[in-house]
Amino acid sequence: MNHKPFESWIIEGYSGNPAEKEQLEEHLAVCPQCSKLEKSWNMARHQLKTAPVKKAPANFVGLWQSNLVRFREKQKRKQARTLLAGYIAGALVALIALSAVLLPKISLISVIVTATSAMVRLIESIKQVWTIILSLVKVAPTTTILVIAAMVAGWILLAVLAWAVSVWKVSVKKVVAK
Amino acid sequence: MVNLDREWIDKACKGDDEAFTKLVETYQNPVYNMCFRMLGEAGAAEDAAQETFWRAYQNMKKYDPQRSFITWILSIAAHYCIDQQRKRRIPLFELDEFPDFDLGDASLPTPEKQLSLNEEDAALHSLINTLQPIDRAAVIMKYWHECSEEEISEMLELSVSAVKSRLHRARKQLANMILDKKVSPENERRKYESQAL
User: Fold this and answer.
1) Which of A41, A53, A57 comes nearest B46 by C-beta?
2) Is the pLDDT of residue B151 over 80?
3) What are the domain boundaries of chain A?
4) What is A111-154 written as a DSSP string?
């Protein structure tokens, strides 16, 4: 049996032509398969049509207003991350481009030699400064050395105090906030 | 009301938060309903509806005033829910690695969530849950929001003939589901019936 047009008429509806309606009714009377389909589709359609529109929770608008602030902050963070990633990528590209231009002209050995000699010069300078300090200490009177030592100790003490006060302030703030 | 909507839409396009909140107030129910019918869970639907409004808020400048606002916002909701459905169906790890866990079908609500739905909602959800996400969105737009096939095609970015064929397939599937449900309890009973009876 050919169900094709009848199946479509059942599911999608027919044009309203009385001849088609008659044909469908005749077919439904003799075809149990299409008759079942018609009944079940009518049931399904009834369920769909009678189901109400679900209402949003009562606090939906209030939630939206608080979410808007959160969404904006999230977007700002995302933009900041994107910007940072852009900067890093840009710096990397610039570095690669720079090395592509410079590397062929400078040999690896010359770079190592330059870096090593710079390091040796730095160590030598530190040693010379240390020697000068030691000789000054030997020449200077005891009172001057004591005054300098007291000043250095005072600065260290002040720095430690400032650090302790800042730590205390931060901890007090957090406790108040809680 | 329409003129008032237009005024709020115009203001919202210019970045007026208060006007956009009015739009949220006006369209919260259709958007929530679309999300609820697509996802079948109140919590997920609420999150999806909020996300829909956030996406609309971000794209207000791209909104074409010639287009109906409800069509536009439902289209955002439908696409978001379709994405969510697809994500739910993608397993995060191989099931064989965790043989002791009964993960079930992630697209179906858990028993706890199922309890929160009333009986009618649960029956309807189990019925439309069998449809593919795009077909489901088309059915929801057609039967709850009374959208025309042209509007559905615009919202789902499909051709009108594709919408027609999807709706036909979905309707047939729903009818067959009802048919199976009507038949299956009898079959179940027959399994335990005595041969003599």
Assistant:
1) A57
2) yes
3) 4-50, 71-105
4) HHHHHHHHHHHHHHHHHHHHHHHHHHHHHS-HHHHHHHHHHHHH
